Amino acid sequence: MGLITGLCTFLYHFPQIYKWLLKPYYITSLFMTVAFLVVRKAPGLCEHLASQREDGNSCDFDWRELEILMFLSAIVMMKNRRATFVMTCKPPLYMGPEYIKYFSDKTIDEELQRDSRVTWIVEFYANWSSDCQSFAPVFADLSLKYNCAGLRFGKVDIGRYGEVSERYRVSTSPLAKQLPSLLLFQGGREIMRRPMVDNKGRAVSWTFNEENIIREFNLNELFQKAKKLNKGRALKGEEHNGTQPGEGSDELHADAKTPEQPTESKKDQ
């Protein structure tokens, strides 16, 4: 089953791998590697090559060449281990609907402190993190369900804005395992975050799913408070706007009664 999954993943990402391998550097390296193997094994050519084998057979690899090939293969695998994993196993980018505001290093502080009555839930993420990309649909779905004027959702790419990472103490190191991080802000101040961080700077294990986020951040309670705030604003707006139409309506009723007065006076006469 694992072999079939790996094969399907490879075939799915084959166009991306194909474009990646078409770079001149990789083409030249592949050509030189194949050329060395062909020359060493090709009859008529391998006899003229030098060899340190005891039997003097120059058409076969000696121990020194085998060690070099194994050493280079190990280095290539170690260097490209992370890149290969990201290229073949990284989940696709989320492109669905969402009610999320994206911050930069210059706008995040201003937005969080603009209105003390607004509660912000901000995700600190990095584009290269597969965990962040897997969490993107969950966070977008929460924003669709709970976003309102008093409860807002935001995101900031700390892989791009390193100053924001240092300012809010969210590490981008893979060893810290702090990506993604959800921070709750009220009045521009941090109230809580998940995952929590221990004294060594490592994240405490926490599962990023919809149920845990709703429970830990009390989203239902925050949403109800935000709705009451919205209703209060709407009532104040109606009272403020309703005074002027009320006066105008009285004037209209008075004007409407004025033409009836002469008719009534004629009837009384």
UniProtKB/TrEMBL annotation:
GO terms for cellular component: mitochondrial membrane. Residues 250-269 have a biased composition (Basic and acidic residues). Its main location: mitochondrion. Residues 232-269 are annotated as: Disordered. InterPro entries: Thioredoxin-like_sf, Thioredoxin_domain, TMX2, TMX2_thioredoxin_dom. GO terms for biological process: brain development. It is found in: Mitochondrion membrane. SUPFAM superfamilies: Thioredoxin-like. Residues 76-231 form the Thioredoxin domain. Keywords: Membrane, Signal, Transmembrane, Transmembrane helix. GO terms for molecular function: disulfide oxidoreductase activity. Pfam families: Thioredoxin. This is Thioredoxin-related transmembrane protein 2a. It comes from Seriola lalandi dorsalis.
